[in-house]
Design brief:
Length: 164
């Protein structure tokens, strides 16, 4: 049985992006054409469907590493910041892009928040602390369906996958 863990990311993510772009809940915001994807970038992305590709990559990463939050995802989508003559340092990706993708995936029913604990704040009100987001059964089903569809393409590109 083929799962999303068996298919390499460079094959799975574009196919998953095609499925996500046809869904109703995943839409590119109007500000996405002018926003940078992180502090390590100088210009906005040139790819037409970059929002669907980023949403697919976030969904895959939540499925593999969940529960995971927006901060860790922003670090994962970061890169090297050019500091001229000083050594490069790690820069984070855009948290706004990550949060918006997470919200859209959550509204589509593909991921959900995990409650860690409930505490009382200063005003004696209950406050919920979340661990992060995990994949739902519907999201897992979508990932596995896309993995099954792309299995033949993956075996052509990576012949060693036929052993599994």
């Amino acid at each position: 049985m083929t799962t999303f863990r068996d298919i390499p990311a460079d094959i799975l993510i574009p196919a998953l992006a095609g499925h996500l772009s046809s869904m109703d809940g995943i839409t590119t915001p109007e500000w996405a054409s002018v926003v940078k994807t992180g502090v390590h970038r100088e210009r906005p992305p040139e790819q037409e469907n970059w929002w669907a590709v980023r949403s697919a990559a976030i969904l895959r990463k939540v499925a593999r590493e969940g529960p995971i939050g927006a901060t860790h995802l922003a670090q994962a989508f970061g890169g090297k910041v050019n500091r001229n003559s000083a050594p490069n340092r790690a820069g984070q990706g855009s948290r706004k892009v990550v949060r918006t993708c997470l919200i859209q995936l959550e509204e589509s029913g593909l991921i959900e928040k995990v409650v860690e604990k409930e505490i009382k704040n200063i005003d004696d009100e209950n406050q919920i602390i979340y661990k992060g987001r995990v994949i739902t059964p519907a999201g897992h089903k979508l990932l596995d369906e896309v993995a099954r569809e792309t299995r033949s393409t993956a075996e052509e590109s990576y012949p060693e996958l036929k052993d599994y």
